[in-house]
Design brief:
The chain is α+β, with helices and mostly antiparallel strands. 33% of the residues lie in helices and 20% in strands. A hairpin with a 2-residue loop joins strand 14 and strand 15. Helix 12 runs parallel beside helix 14. The strands form six sheets. Strands 15-14-19-18-16-17 form a six-stranded antiparallel beta sheet. It folds into two domains: 297 residues, FAD/NAD(P)-binding domain; 109 residues, Succinate dehydrogenase/fumarate reductase flavoprotein, catalytic domain (Flavocytochrome C3, Chain A, domain 1, Alpha-Beta Complex).
């Protein structure tokens, strides 16, 4: 079982595959789309690391403190310490691969991002994700040529292969031929966030359907903090999704306002004078909700004060996107913006080494719930994906057997059973609407109870296939987690429990057994070495 099966070929999957290959381990890189079309390509703003290139006496300790504070102390300190202490080395590794970060005098330029007082975000204009992905793809191709990375693009994950409670492989299907194959080996899920549960309402691609994590959940893998959905404050509506207006726009001086009578009211600057427009995303999104309720009308992002050189060297793609989609030039005209679902802090529960609750199964990237607690800081997602993929791969190399065998993979199965049937579009939209009604920026027990009742009625209407039942299970986990967390923390705001309650400073843990979802709470320090004896 020397081959490692990686589900997902974005930042985390590629970083893991490259790390494994450098250690001589082979991997099967399975993805619906080629890496060039992964969600990671869309990431714009930048990647955080305390490089201190801007002369502000930044440090890994300050990065750690900002990350913990931004996540409202709902992440494992040990995991966040590992992430932030390795951040400079991670960014310099990417630079060594050829990522064209903006530079000056031989140093990487860094800019401000939300929830952080220091300029800590390295960037490549406003296409950082695309630039990092391009360099990782080029590096991976070197190992593909050597046979250490085997690509399975246009292939989908169907289910885990489980033997006596241990993950021993995965079933994948060629979407062109319809043939399936079971592949033996350690499995790493790097399948991205659950955007497909909220079609048309997220900034991410719905190719990240959430089906992989949902299937793993109903097969016995623990989820955590699924109530923590990040609404990005600044998005614009386009056909089929929300288009991100990167936080870098506010990092470079963009200002949010709403009309208060005949005047522009720059509410973030008035109500949050410390970090102003660069307050953590949950704070900004929630305040946008409140000022719209108070004053009516739209919230605008005013970027008219940005210099032409900023648009040219730092935000060129953003300007063109807004011109294309809204037919306005943001240099001259404020942009109407609204909150959109952008990131999933919750997901598959792992320990600090990215081991899941099931032996033989790892997870990294946005499909996990390790680093970001109750709210992710901008610039930490790409860091978490790249570092997480590398950390998972290093643990696989260190702690799993390599028997030197790589059996030929034969796609001979005509179907993959009920696991392979997709959820119907009609059902996906019905579940989405139930969740949106209860899992918005402001929540309460009444709407959550109502959503659970509606979900139960819907699930009783007819028989459903396995993927549809898995979606029901994840939706229940989200709603039940939000109901059980009777406090307000980060992205989870309960108007019936508006204060933070540190008796809830624990991970919300969701498990599925015998067709039922159960919710418990787990101490954050249990994420440390709890699974060290499992692999």
């Amino acid at each position: 079982m020397s081959r490692v099966i990686i589900i997902g070929a974005g930042l985390s999957g590629l970083s893991a595959a490259i790390t494994l290959a450098k250690a001589g381990r082979r991997s099967a890189l399975v993805s619906l789309q080629p890496s060039e079309r992964a969600q990671s390509v869309l990431a714009e703003g930048g990647i955080n690391a305390a490089l201190d290139t801007m002369g502000e006496n930044d440090s890994a300790d300050e990065h750690f403190n900002d990350t913990m504070r931004g996540g409202v102390f709902l992440a494992s300190e040990a995991a966040v310490r590992a992430l932030t202490s390795h951040a400079p080395e991670t960014v310099m590794w990417l630079s060594s691969l050829g990522v064209p970060f903006n530079m000056k005098d031989g140093k990487i330029i860094q800019r401000n991002f939300g929830g952080q007082k220091k300029k800590r975000t390295a960037f490549a204009k406003s296409s950082t994700g695309k630039m990092i992905m391009t360099s990782l793809i080029d590096e991976a191709r070197k190992y593909e040529d050597k046979g250490l990375i085997e690509r399975f693009a246009h292939h989908e994950f169907i289910r885990l292969i489980i033997d006596n409670g241990e993950c021993v492989g995965a079933v994948v299907r060629d979407r062109y031929s319809g043939k399936s194959a079971g592949i033996s080996g350690v499995v790493l899920l790097a399948c991205g966030g659950m955007n497909g549960i909220f079609p048309e309402m997220t900034t991410g691609t719905t190719q990240n359907s959430g089906d992989a994590a949902a299937t793993a959940f109903v097969q016995g893998v623990t989820l955590s903090n699924t109530e923590m959905l990040q609404y990005h404050p600044t998005t614009i509506g386009i056909s089929g999704k929300r288009c991100l207006v990167t936080e870098a726009a506010r990092g470079e001086g963009g200002r949010l306002y709403i009309m208060r009578g005949d005047e522009r009211y720059y509410f973030m600057e008035d109500r949050f004078p410390d970090l102003k427009n660069l307050s953590p995303r949950d704070v900004v999104a929630r305040e946008m909700f409140f000022v719209r309720r108070e004053f009516g009308g739209e919230v605008f992002l005013d970027m008219t004060g940005l210099d032409e050189e900023v648009w040219k060297s730092k935000l060129p793609d953003l300007r063109e996107e807004i011109k294309s989609y809204l037919s306005i030039d943001p240099k001259d005209t404020p942009v109407p913006v609204k909150e959109g679902i952008h990131y999933f802090m919750g997901g598959i529960y792992t320990d600090i080494n990215h081991r899941t609750s099931m032996q033989g199964l790892y997870a990294s990237g946005e499909c996990t719930s390790l680093y970001h607690g109750a709210n992710r800081l901008g610039g930490n997602s790409m860091l978490g994906a790249v570092y997480g993929g590398r950390a998972a791969a290093e643990d696989i190399v260190k702690n799993t057997a390599d028997d030197g065998k790589n059996d030929e993979i034969s796609f001979a199965i005509d179907d993959a059973g009920n696991f392979g049937e997709p959820a119907s579009d009609e059902l996906i939209l019905k579940i989405r609407d139930i969740l949106l009604d209860a899992m918005g920026i402001v929540r309460n027990e009444s709407t959550l109870d109502n959503a659970l009742e509606r979900l139960d009625r819907l699930s009783a209407e007819r028989g459903y296939n396995d993927r549809e039942n898995a979606r029901f299970a994840v939706a229940r986990a989200m709603l039940m987690s939000a109901k059980e967390r009777r406090e307000s923390r980060g992205a989870h705001y309960r108007e019936d429990f508006p204060e933070r309650d540190d008796s809830f400073k624990k991970a919300t843990v969701a498990q599925y057994k015998n067709g039922k979802v159960s919710i418990t709470f787990k101490a954050l320090d249990e994420r440390g070495e709890e699974n060290a004896d499992k692999t």
